[in-house]
Design goal:
With 564 residues, this protein is of the alpha/beta class. 27% of the residues lie in helices and 21% in strands. The N terminus is likely disordered.
Length: 564
């Protein structure tokens, strides 16, 4: 077979031919096509690039494919192990020539390219390929505009979240996110130092620019300075700046930092908040009092039931237990140990997160939650939909100084429940505001091993499952973020239809993330460089290896930066 010439144009796209389809052997997989090229052309062939395969014989079919292996090199004549071929290689500098060789590589067919016509306008699309390219078919790279169309990538004039890593920076192929992709439910995974936090900021910046209300549960205090521009100027290389990526704080958004009332920091710009104990399911209140004796459990349950609509959380429970006569002679009252039961309730009160806010009693003014602004003199309030669900707003729930996992889970549960109630109504006042909730360290919410109490893990998992199922109809979208995806319950992981996976080294994590369409890419997950990720979603034709851009807003290093 004659060698392909780089100068030979393909009939359709004027791109240089980079090879021709070879004959198969019996070990070829059905969708893998062997392609032969010459040693000069092989130098420029890059793995994972997309190619057009054009038949030149009777059928004239075109195929969309991706290079998945090679190029591999073999002598032009004779066997690889023959001395004529190996001697010049082994002797190195003593013999300064290399025997003539051919190169071949394997491409995976992703579909057949067909022409369609709509209203007199012709276009190309990808459909399932039920045939394979014939030998001698020509192979060439695909122009960028056609590539974006074939892959069903988002085409936008907005700032991209990154570029396709396999296309380099000379002529980068941008990767954009739109509302449709986020509404498919997103998971962001990666080990420590893989670039996961940078990706969180990049996605948040993108959504804020698109008018979303963004809420971040910040476990480490990494995001509370996003109103400031990035201080990592060295990351903004010329090709990023050419794409409009330069240091910049969150633009066009009202940035708010929130601190739980238990946090002792005196940041005057932050909004301090508390949680209503009556909003926490009573079963979880009892779980935090555990262990309860059978008698204590029956007494406290009966008190809650008898209070009915008068139940207003811990204060009403404490009052009713205090009112129990010391000489109670019924079975439960005699065995419940009133002082111990009161102490368990007081311990919950001393956690400090419950019922610490003061709502304005002036009937002529709205609740304090509507008046509160950063720097409001240290007031404490309950969080509300009016405060959190606002267009182009970034809300960072800073949990960096909250070491108690029960407190973290209480905060997460109360906010998620409040958002679900506010959004999941057909006639909701907030139905037109798209809400994204970034759940950092999600395994600490959902995993019984990490959540502290299995009851909390079960309650949070059940709530997120419910939000995943119906929330996307109302544009309420949790974003699951974790360095330990294997510890996320299967019912949650299965709902993360779109996944951004950074470097992972644990075999369990790789197996969980590398399922479905990502399976044939799972072997690259341990080798991804910092900032690179594998993105999978049914909205795109194939998984993409993407180099995420640097975040324009500031990311805090909790080990070196202080809270000012």
């Amino acid at each position: 077979m004659p060698r392909p010439k780089k100068s030979t144009p393909s009939s359709e796209n004027n791109e240089a031919v980079i090879g021709h389809v070879l004959l198969d052997n019996f070990i070829n997989e059905d969708d893998l096509i062997p392609i032969l090229t010459d040693q000069d052309t092989a130098k420029d062939i890059t793995s994972r690039r997309y190619v057009l395969i054009e038949e030149t014989r009777e059928r004239k079919k075109q195929y969309f494919a991706q290079i998945v292996r090679g190029p591999l090199h073999t002598p032009e004549w004779g066997n690889v192990s023959e001395g004529l071929n190996t001697f010049p290689i082994v002797k190195g500098k003593e013999i300064d020539f290399v025997p003539s060789f051919n190169s071949y590589y394997l491409a995976k067919v992703l579909g057949e390219i067909v022409e369609t016509e709509d209203g007199g306008k012709k276009s190309k699309k990808i459909q399932t390929a039920f045939t394979r390219p014939l030998p001698k078919s020509r192979v060439s790279y695909i122009p960028k505009d056609e590539l974006i169309s074939f892959l069903a990538l988002v085409s936008s004039t907005e700032k991209p979240v990154g570029i396709l890593a396999n296309y380099g920076t000379d002529d980068p192929v941008p990767f954009h996110l739109d509302d449709r992709l986020i509404n498919r439910q997103l998971g962001i995974f990666g080990s420590t130092g893989s670039g996961k936090s940078n990706t969180v900021i990049v996605v948040a910046e993108t959504l804020i620019q698109r008018g979303w209300s963004v809420i971040i549960f910040d476990h480490s205090g990494e995001y509370y300075k996003m109103a400031e521009p990035s201080s990592e100027a060295r990351l903004f290389l010329p090709f990023w700046r050419n794409l409009g990526i330069a240091p910049c704080g969150v633009e066009g958004a009202q940035f708010r930092g929130f601190l739980p009332v238990t946090d002792g920091r005196s940041d005057q710009k932050a909004i301090k908040f508390s949680v209503k104990s009556m909003d926490i399911p009573f079963l979880l209140i009892k779980a935090m009092m555990a262990p309860l004796s059978d008698a204590q459990n029956r007494v406290i349950s009966r008190i809650h039931r008898d209070l009915g609509v008068k139940y207003d959380g811990l204060s009403s429970l404490i009052k009713e237990v205090q009112n129990i006569p010391e000489s109670g002679n019924s079975g439960d009252l005699r065995h419940m140990s009133k002082p111990i039961l009161l102490e368990k309730l007081e311990i919950l009160k001393r956690m400090g997160i419950f019922d610490a806010a003061v709502i304005s009693q002036n009937p002529g003014k709205p609740p304090l939650s509507l008046q509160i602004q950063p720097g409001n003199g240290g007031r404490v309030d309950y969080l509300s939909p009016e405060l959190l669900i606002r267009r182009s707003t970034l809300n960072v729930i800073d949990l960096g100084n909250t070491g108690d996992q029960d407190t973290i889970n209480i905060i997460g549960l109360s906010i998620l429940q409040m958002l679900e109630i506010a959004k999941n109504k057909i006639n909701s006042a907030y139905k037109d505001v798209k809400v994204a909730i970034f759940l950092e360290e999600a395994h600490t919410f959902f995993s019984k091993e990490h959540a502290g109490r299995p009851e909390f893990a079960e309650a949070l998992t059940s709530m997120i499952k419910r939000i995943f199922k119906v929330g996307r109809k109302f544009w309420l979208n949790p974003i699951v973020i974790s360095q330990q995806p294997a510890d996320i319950p299967p019912g949650i992981m299965s709902q993360c239809v779109m996944r951004i996976s950074h470097q992972l080294s644990d075999e369990r994590d790789i197996q969980i993330v590398g399922r479905g369409s990502a399976k044939r890419f799972s072997d690259i997950l341990p080798d991804l460089r910092k900032g690179e990720c594998l993105i999978t979603t049914p909205e795109i034709l194939a998984p993409q290896i993407v180099r995420i851009r640097p975040a324009m807003a500031k990311k805090v290093d909790p080990q070196t930066d202080s809270f000012e």
